[in-house]
Amino acid sequence: MGNVTIIGAQWGDEGKGKVVDWLASRADIVVRFQGGHNAGHTLVVGNQTYKLSLLPSGLVRGKMGVIGNGVVIDPDALLAEIGRLQAQGLVISPETLRIADNAPLILPLHAALDRAREAARGVHKIGTTGRGIGPAYEDKVARRAIRVCDLAEPETLSSKLDELLLHHNTLLAGLGAATFEKQALLDALLALAPQLLPYAEPVWERLAAARASGAKILFEGAQAVMLDVDHGTYPFVTSSNTVAGTAASGAGLGPDAVGRVLGIAKAYCTRVGSGPFPTELHDETGTLLGERGHEFGTVTGRKRRCGWFDAALVRQAVKVGGIQGLALTKLDVLDGMKELKIGVGYLIKGEKFRHLPAGMAAQAAALPIYETLEGWSGSTRGARSWAALPAQAIKYVKRIEELVEAPVTLLSTSPERDDTILMQDPFAA
Length: 429
Ligand code: GDP
Ligand code: IMO
Ligand code: MG
Prior knowledge:
There is one protein chain. By secondary structure, this protein is of the alpha/beta class. The protein folds into 3 domains: 4-99 and 201-260, Adenylosuccinate Synthetase, Chain A, domain 1 (3-Layer(aba) Sandwich); 108-196, Adenylosuccinate Synthetase, subunit A, domain 2; 266-422, Alpha-Beta Complex (Adenylosuccinate Synthetase, Chain A, domain 3), CATH 3.90.170.10. Helices cover 31% and strands 19% of the residues. It has helices at 16-23, 75-87, 108-121, 133-141, 154-174, 182-196, 203-212, 246-249, 284-292, 311-321, 360-365, 391-404; strands at residues 4-8, 29-32, 41-45, 48-52, 64-67, 97-100, 200-201, 217-220, 260-266, 269-271, 305-307, 309-310, 325-329, 339-348, 351-353, 367-374, 408-412, 420-422. The chain is globular, with a radius of gyration of 21 Å. The N and C termini lie close together (7 Å). The mean pLDDT is 97.
């Protein structure tokens, strides 16, 4: 039995948290490998709802959680989230949560820069979560990031802050935003150090040992392939690679550790923030999907844009993301709809495309080519077996499988943990 990697196959919020929580019963360790607290994963277990941003969803099952080096960590957000979940009765301690000592930190200046830039972009804004994700990844690549391990070296911290502030204060001042003072930042980081350092370690050692002992690792992706900084709808993307291959580099393991790759897709499609969305619906059907699917962002509370399932887009995500099986969620939201459409390609300036081209103008101009399917009158809500699904719902799922060129191996029929139908166990594959 190998490992499993979960990634989003659309623009995020596909229900990765629910699927990771469900599969975590079969895993020993759950690892976050990219993104930061821009992610929002909602888990519903009985009458409890857990909202996780930075913490691996497996903690809800009492499984060991690891935050890999590929994640950008806001220490204040992390400690606040740990506190919130402890208050909900979860056990989170250095025994259950380990954090890569080489992971970069998000500081208040990153969020300030993120927001100042978005304000300066005006109508051309990306619609980021404003949490400093982009600026923190920029600093990592620019080799000036402050990392978890630096918290144990006050002198390193002090000299790194000098370089960081030289860069950021220049930018912030140029954008007309408030600048930061070194001593206050240094004091704050030194005060956080004793709370954070007990969680820190070279997690690659633990993960390598876990692999050697035959333990099962579940890699929990955040965001989704269409928000990937290389393969997504650039520049309306996040600042990390979200494809499955990142699980290895973002945790400190070789590529063979990734295991079976499960892509998560909604039975329709949503997006938060700006950017192209060819199958977006601006009519009452879009409103209905939003209402029935409770489509509001977990992190920012923003209304999610809604539209039909885009099979051309998911097929692309399957190919570039390395997806071997698809988990289709929120099928229940389509219950009772007379007619369903599936995007199968695009018409761009009179030319037909089977994929979304890379160019910004081409993406913005892409009109969907649809195939229309009959809806179903019965209910899929809460279904726990394939046999309980209306025949037309099965047809819809089967057509999606053909179009995206990947098997649907798991179905989710409500937010509740156990309202899940498993066709093929990814850990057994
Ligand atoms: P993630 O970011 O991919 O983990 O997804 P989010 O948690 O941000 O958003 C998915 C939302 O849909 C959450 O509120 C889930 O509770 C909910 N959800 C997940 N699966 C289903 C499902 O099959 N049906 C319905 N109705 N809701 C679901
Ligand atoms: P989960 O893990 C949906 C979007 C933002 C914005 C763009 C860039 O819950 O699926 P960023 O703050 O990352 O620089 O914003 O990416 N975005 C998400 N949309 N779900 C997410 O995470 C997202 N994380 C970032 O809305 O459009
Ligand atoms: Mg989410």
